[in-house]
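ARCHIVE CARD
Drawer: 12
Card no.: 0347
Subject: one protein chain, sequence and derived structure
Cross-reference: see card 0346
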Amino acid sequence: MKNQVFCTATQSFQTIQNAFGQFAFATLLTLFMFNGLMSAESAPKQFVSFQNFIENAKTASSVAYVGHAGKRVKDAASFEEMRQHALQMYNEVHVSHSFLLDSHYFDCVPVEEQPSFRMLGQKQIATPPPTPPPHQQLGEDAPVAASQIGPDNQFDQFGNSTHCEGNTIPMRRLALEDMSQFENLKQFLAKGRDGASRFTRPNDPQPNGDGYVHHYAYAQQNVKNLGGNSDLNLWSPYVNTGVGGETMSLSQEWYVGGSPTQTAEVGWQNQPNTWGSENSVLFIYWTADDYNNTGCYNLDCGAFTQTNNNWYFGSGFNNYSSRGGSQYYFSAEYFLSGGNWWLALGGQWVGYYPASIYGGGQMSHNAQVIQYGGEVAALTQWPPMGSGDWSDKGWKYAAYQSDIWYFDTGSAKWWAGLTLEQPSKHCFTDSFLTYAPTSFYFGGPGGKGC
């Protein structure tokens, strides 16, 4: 029988530690392979202000992009569509200041000038739900809440503060140099340069139109819901883009409904060809039509309205979990409240997807499935999932998600009654924690023949 959640649980860490504390060895080789690496891109030598970026975008020509080494934009028409999208996103935006984070530009955009607020015709910022209760992991060796800004990156190399002023939010810049890594605008918004972002139903992994196959190890429950919560153990698995087409590895939450599929998603993703970094980054995603013509990551289209300036979509973290060593995590929660899919990270409301973006479909009212776990995508050789260890390696070795609960259609909280799914079990597995049916381990080394 399911038990209603009256407060946020804090005992999951102790359960993890007690169940799997015997796994206490690690090697330098695996630490190197699975810990976060340095950014794939070197920092620019000259800072490009927001104003210079806009002026350059206004006069940019496809001649400088189409057919050039390192650029994949298909033709002049595709480049022009990208350029117009970027200019539309920044129309009438007044940036207070800009900075570099993970070698990428972020601009501090006034909350009411961000793309979704303007493009969806919002009249005022929505009122958030009540603040989630404080969340703590207890125990002498408890995992640490992850952060994106720490003592060592308060300022970028040009002396610019990496904090946005009040009433502004950090928006990762839609640079033409990044967009032109994709064949067209649709591919960019799907982050599908290598087909690595397209969700394929976990019970039936199939290649998408580009031939890339997705594999999963996850847990789910079919239940009408208004969202839910999970604590995501944070890792940065090694994704070798130069061998066998390896492209992407992630851990995330899916809230799913309707046919065609509609989703609200959140998690961490390691996809160097997209993010320009070999570290995992924070991301959100949505689709209203099974990933065909709608959807985008983060703030790349006019969908998500960010209200909190403490979180940086498309950027990495200061620390990642290490095998046999320190463990890091962040909590993520979606809640459909007041006609908006609100997102909380680390117990803070960060922003929302207006339910109107689902066009009156299922997610305009509620989701029908909750899903949590790992996903990888590749052509012939798949990257590691989670930490790269099998789920039965347990605490400090295998990746996990814990404290998983959902909101029913009356907004009450219930512990999830999850069923484990591992359609690619010869490469990736998952397993419940002992005495913790709302927490599970997942992962695997990947490789060929998955």
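Annotation on reverse: The radius of gyration is 21 Å. Residues 46-448 form one domain.
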